[in-house]
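Blinded run. Sample ID left blank on purpose so nobody reads anything into the name before looking at the predicted structure. Input follows.
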Amino acid sequence: MATPILDRIPFFDRRSRDYSIREIMPRTIERKKTIWSIPDKSFPLNQGREGACVGFGWAAELSAHPHLYDTNNEYARALYHRAREEDRAMGNNWTSGASVLAGARALRKEGRLKSYRWGFGIEDVIDTVVTKGPVVLGINWHESMYRTRAEGLVIVDGPIVGGHCILVYGYWPGHEKFGDVFLWVNSWGPTYGIRGKAYLPVSKADQLLRAGGEACIATDVAI
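Blinded prediction complete.
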């Protein structure tokens, strides 16, 4: 696999704090194994060498249950370019890349997404996956994360080599080999992990979120 370009750029709007996912969570949550289905016909997506991960991360979100939009690489690339337009509208004139926020704004503008909220910390991400659906993450990418172990386990180690946008679509407490893990799907084709999917330890997800990460949740999708 050629080394993909990492092009998620962190950009935080202070107004996002007014739209916490916690405000619409049920009071009582059973943290059980929860995996949202992703149709095989759409995955794994492959952004190739283009640093279009924001478009691909949000396209993956639309494809996953409970939304199940029939997406593909062409749509994901187009969404990335629309996200770049949204970034420019917010004053972010980057030569390449996009923010997770811009991806959400682009989807809302095209009518796919009516509303979105934010998770602030690992507890919000766990409870969202268990009760609401997948979560779009924007995180720093470490050198060791380009490839997983043979069993699909993500190792977070080494220097930071860029930023990436990726979709968490499952939570598995007490996995028999890895302990408490999230399941995520990447946009680097079938050679990454297990046909594009992998396991991320919850403790490592917490580490990534604390180090300038973000978690965005589509709360009202119009298909």
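Unblinding after everyone has recorded impressions. The CA atoms of residues 152 and 193 lie 5 Å apart.
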